[in-house]
Every structure is written in C-alpha cells, then in structure tokens.
Amino acid sequence: MSLTIEQVLDDAKRLVDRLRDHDNAADSLIEQSTTLNKRIEAMKQYQEDVEEMNSVARHRPRSALILGIQQENRQIRELQRENRELRVALEEHQSALDLIMSSYREQVCRMLMANRFDRDCLEKHAEYRENSMASTAKIIEMAAVMKQAIELEEKSSFNIEQQLTRLQVENRGLRELLEISRAVHFPHSPSNQEEKRDKEKDPKSTIVINREGANNLSESKSPPPKKDQSTKTNSGTGSETLANDSKDVGNTKARPVELQDADEQGVFKRDTSSTGTVGGDKKGDDAAQGEGAIDLEVENVLNDFADLTASLDIDEDGEESEA
C-alpha cells in the first residue's frame, strides 16, 4: 500500500503535537515536584522549630507557657492599638501639613502678585516722576521767560509813562510860554482881555512855571523832530536848546514871530520890524516897553530850567547805569 506525501506530513504533524504535549506534561511534572520539595523542606523546618521549642519548654510547665503567650498577646494588642493611633495621627498630620502647604502656596502666590504690582507701581512712579521733572523744568523755564517779559514790559511801561509825563509837562510849559509871549506881544487882544478878566475873577489861576515844567521846557523849545525820532529825548541837548531859546527870545524884536494856539483861537501871525514897532501905533509901543521886563523874566525861567534839566540828566544817567 503506497503512502502519499500528505499522509506522511499529517503523521509528522501529529508526532510533533504529541511531543509538544509530552514536553508540556514533563514541565508541569517538574514544577509539581519542585513545589512538593519546597513543602517538604518547609515541613522539615517546622518540625525542627517545634522540636527546638519543645526542647526549650521541657523545663517549664504548660500553664506558664499559656501565661506567657497571653502576655505576648496583650502586648501585641497594645502594639496594634498604638499602631492604629499612630496611623490616625499620621493621617491627621498629613492633612494638617496639606492645609499648611496649601496656605503657604497661596501666600507665596499673593507675595508674587504683590511684588509684581509693586514693580509695576515703581515703574509707573518712575515714569510719572520723569514726566513731572520734565514738566517742572518747562514750568521753571516758562516762569523765567515770563519774569523776563514782565521786567521788559515794566521797563517799557515805565519809559512810556516817563515820556508821557515829560510830554505833558512840556505841553504845560509850552502853553505857559505861549501865554507869556502872547501877553507881551498881544496885550490888547480879545483872548488876553478874556484871560485878564478870568484872572481878576479867579486870582489863584496865575501863570507859574513850576519845576516840573521847567524840567522839560528845554525839550519843548527844541525844534520839532522827525517822525522816526519823535519819541527819543537826549539829555545832552537840553542846554543847547536852552541857549537857542534864550537867543530866540532875545531877538524877538529883530525877526518875525509866529505864534500858534490851536486850542483857543487857531493861528496868530505877527511880523515885527527891526525897530520893534507894530504898525507905528500905540499898542506896539506898549509891547516894546514891556518886552525888556518879560525877556528878563524869561531868561530867569530858562536859567532855572537849565539847572533842573541838568539835575534830571544826571538822575537819568544814574538810572541807565543801574539798568
């Protein structure tokens, strides 16, 4: 009977399976034998221990052994109770430690947040301080500029007021000189008669050239300046204008005189000849006779005015040097 290859292979597979089963069974038997050996050894050890205990306890009675075992049991129970208490205490300690650590973590977080907030506050404070210092420097600079501007404004206002007072005094002096010259040259004019009547009614309103008027009289007698130099007054030209004014007043007989009074009567013009007569009438003779006394009076006034102008020039030079 011929065998096919498939049958041979099947038989080989069966043999292999059986061998594998035999190996597994042998392994299990080996394990069982090892466990049995271990049990046997343990039983031997137990037997030896029992024999040793019996050999030790032969000289003691059984009641003593029982008492000893009971005491040992009590001690074991106490130890177990202590172990339980220690376990409970350990658990409580762990819970308390957890609470402490959680509070510690919270405090650390708060401190970190506070430090961060303080750092931010310090940075903002530094920025605010820098800004305040810059604004303070600007304010100080502006205050210095304003102070300088105020000083310049005060100086300019003082100069303007001083110039205004000088012009007012000059105007008063010019009016007084105009009235004197009108009284000399036009004694019988209607305006002079009206002034005489006013003076008779009010004797206190006499024509007096005060020291303040004399201070600026020289400036008023000076020739009218140009438009660009109308506001400038020089202390050095006071005496020169006084000399020119005295010459003009002394020579009123030899040259024509033009008087202007825009406030009262408009324009008066008078021409006098070299002999000092006015049309050869009696009014001209009276004016010629009174001119000598008036010239002396005017010269005295001009001398006083020159002295006062010199003193004012000295004061102005001192003020300019101080400024």
From TrEMBL:
Keyword Coiled coil included in the entry's annotation: yes
Keywords from the named record: Coiled coil
GTP-binding recorded as keyword: no
UniProt-listed InterPro entries: SIKE
Span list, region Disordered: 185-289
Coiled coil segments of this chain: 62-99
Ranges annotated as biased composition (Polar residues): 231-244
Database matches in Pfam families: SIKE
Basic and acidic residues composition-biased segments: 193-204, 245-258
Membership in a protein family: Belongs to the SIKE family.
Protein name in the entry: FGFR1 oncogene partner 2 homolog
